[in-house]
Amino acid sequence: MIRLLLAEDQGMMRGALALLLGLEEDIEIVAQVGDGDEIVPRALETKPDVALLDIELPGRSGLDAAADLRARMPGCQVLILTTFGRPGYLRRAMEAGASGFLVKDGPVEELAAAIRRVLAGERVIDPALAAAALSAGPNPLTQRERDVLAAAVDGATVADIAAKVHLSPATVRNYLSAAIGKTRTRNRMEAVRAARQNGWL
């Protein structure tokens, strides 16, 4: 049996995935979580063979949890399943050690096959997304620029952002300016939007 941990924040989607995958003769759902902070503790407790993770979760993102999971449980394969097929997300998932990346609009049989394939040591990536990621190139933003943009998401002031990321307001302005230039946008909110659309945040 393939022991599977399922992380999805939408209860109906999580229930449907658990039900459909549970019908497969060789897959057993050993844990279901709706919050990114629960992924690693539940995985350490239930010892899954494969963790099927959404990206955008309350608490930690699936990408952050994937990196931690690979470090703490190297035998557990990570498969990202997301609504958002963004090239930057794919690149970040691979950097975090994920073995696969699929978007949610595929058939459940394909998902079950992907779970078996990553457990067998294969890489499984949505082909259209792989092509888009190659043409999009790497994330141009530094970690600090990403931190500052992430803190600016809710329209926070420079002073608010500075307090949140523990930098001076002048340094925050410099990072925001660099991020706006790199995303070829006119202001920080457009830069946030562009960075999100590309999966850089």
From TrEMBL:
Q: Which Pfam families match?
A: GerE (PF00196), Response_reg (PF00072)
Q: Which PROSITE patterns match?
A: HTH_LUXR_1, HTH_LUXR_2, RESPONSE_REGULATORY
The record's keywords, sorted A to Z, are: DNA-binding, Phosphoprotein
Which InterPro entries does the record match to this protein?
A: CheY-like_superfamily, Sig_transdc_resp-reg_C-effctor, Sig_transdc_resp-reg_receiver, Tscrpt_reg_LuxR_C, WalR-like
Residues modified as 4-aspartylphosphate are D54
Matching CDD domains, A to Z? Answer: LuxR_C_like
Q: Does the keyword Membrane apply?
A: no
Q: Which GO terms describe its molecular function?
A: DNA binding
Question: What positions does the domain Response regulatory occupy?
Answer: 3-119
Q: Which residues belong to any copy of the HTH luxR-type domain?
A: 134-199
**Biological-process GO terms, alphabetical:** phosphorelay signal transduction system; regulation of DNA-templated transcription
Q: Which PANTHER family match?
A: TRANSCRIPTIONAL REGULATORY PROTEIN DESR, TWO-COMPONENT RESPONSE REGULATOR
The name this protein goes by in its record: Response regulator transcription factor
What is the phylogenetic placement of the source species in the record? Bacteria, Bacillati, Actinomycetota, Actinomycetes, Kitasatosporales
